[in-house]
Amino acid sequence: MNKQELIQQIQHKRSFLCVGLDTEITKVPQHLLQTNDPIFEFNKQIIDATAPYTVAYKPNIAFYECYGIQGWQSLEKTVRYITQNYPDIFVIADAKRGDIGNTSKMYAQAFFENLPFHSVTVAPYMGEDSVTPFLSYEGKWVILLALTSNKGAFDFQCIESNGIPLYKQVITQSQRWGTTENMMYVVGATKANMLKDIRSVAPNHFLLVPGVGAQGGSLQEVAQYGMNAECGLLVNSSRAIIFADASEQFAAVAGIKAQEMQIEMEELLRKYSSLI
Amino acid sequence: MNKQELIQQIQHKRSFLCVGLDTEITKVPQHLLQTNDPIFEFNKQIIDATAPYTVAYKPNIAFYECYGIQGWQSLEKTVRYITQNYPDIFVIADAKRGDIGNTSKMYAQAFFENLPFHSVTVAPYMGEDSVTPFLSYEGKWVILLALTSNKGAFDFQCIESNGIPLYKQVITQSQRWGTTENMMYVVGATKANMLKDIRSVAPNHFLLVPGVGAQGGSLQEVAQYGMNAECGLLVNSSRAIIFADASEQFAAVAGIKAQEMQIEMEELLRKYSSLI
After folding, report:
1. Which CATH number describes the domain made up of A3-272?
2. What is the model's pLDDT at position B10?
């Protein structure tokens, strides 16, 4: 999926919502546990209910990998269900992979060839050759970790060299490897005030922003400091949508929660972007 | 597996060899391609041939993940084969995972509960809460990326703050999270001359050293600068052993290559450690 297609979808749905499919079996409603593949069944119903308000889905791979082969089956069914039924929606493998060149190539193959993901989150620690293998696929994206939403983000990401924090060096240096057409950055919503500074070095890149909702980030602030004319944001919400209700109505409630975010996002798009 | 057990094995086998099971289907000998699971069949024969000279096996997860469910099956069979038949051998999931706390917990579950790995390589970029969930398992280890063996290692790992390179800050700061009993560091053999400096801040930790052999690092230099009285090294070789021969004799040749390294290692243990 190219940048223009993603922007068109944002414009059409008046939303920049990414729904995180971090599906924990212990939180799946009781009545689904008798089905063949409760995690896929849960995801399928969440997807159908939220798709009108959502421009991206982001399964976090850890939540599937922890169930081994069975988990990978649920993951594969989920991503194929999205791309077959909602081909306009951008699908992110939140995998945070990264290894030496010839190994990163295998990870790229895992998510871009063996599975039909549009993008993978990649960790920058190992540098250029750990990232570039993911960039050699037409229409596929790297979403590079810059400033994450967790407490530990401050341990290394903000270490300064010549007054420049590491996350900013990651953003500037990686712009030599990819373009605004195949690279995005992860910037946590819990650090929304730093978005203005990030926009000074990456004005046109899309930013994937986790940490809104359960993790405490503010959508209003993210849009105020991070949105550009083309929106340039995918804001992820996971638990606050998919686990909003644990009854048989879970999907309908998730749909309502997603719609509430879409309405808030429409207003922010009107205020800060030139899309609507 | 605890530190003492690992050291005993090194002493007993007079080896600190780790064999990297980075099994590419395109390099598996022709005659195995007709079997049900060529990758597992290849690994099994490599393991049986090299086990007398080897103290650790390290499947790189990317090489399995790239085949999806089938790859995870081969991986699971491989690690169970090792732990059942060679229970003394240390098994490393070279996964380079790392995510926010509640997600790293799922990765830890994947490798330590669902699969019987003894250790996982972890990327430090996301800081403390991305690492600690792996440390809460008795007898399991984190192997934290410090200074890797690839070209891109210089992009961020050597960035200096107050004269201290990032990889060294990773090593010093992470010593507050784990101990010499549950944490090791990845230090590439291609940077052997930096091992002396690393030993000044981590004298007693085990170091996992990739990059010997195909990647060009020198075993002699690694031992000279990196070995401590208890050895403190696991040196990985992958392609140079497992793909040394592509005929029906591949396993026997791999065994010979592993033995050659063991003999070299025995000499180095005699010279630089107090184990033999």
Report:
1. 3.20.20.70
2. 98
Q: Which residues of chain B have pLDDT under 70?
A: 214-216
pLDDT digits (tens, 9 = 90+) for B23-56: 999 999 999 999 999 999 999 999 999 999 999 9
Burial class (CB in 10 A: 0-12, 13-18, 19+), A55: buried
The answer for B 50-69 residues in CB contact with A (under 8 A) is 60, 62-63, 65-69
Say which of B62, B103, B125 has its CB closest to residue A124. B125
Three-state DSSP class for A15? Answer: coil
Residue ranges per domain, chain B? 3-272
Q: What is the pLDDT of residues A202-247, one digit of tens each?
A: 999 999 999 887 666 789 999 999 999 999 999 999 999 999 999 9
Is the ipTM higher than 0.90? The answer is yes
Provide the CB-side half-sphere exposure for A81 (13 A, CA): 20
Average pLDDT over residues A34-43: 97
Cα A258 to the chain's mean position, in Å?
15
Q: Chain A contacts of B67, Cβ < 8 Å?
A: 110, 114
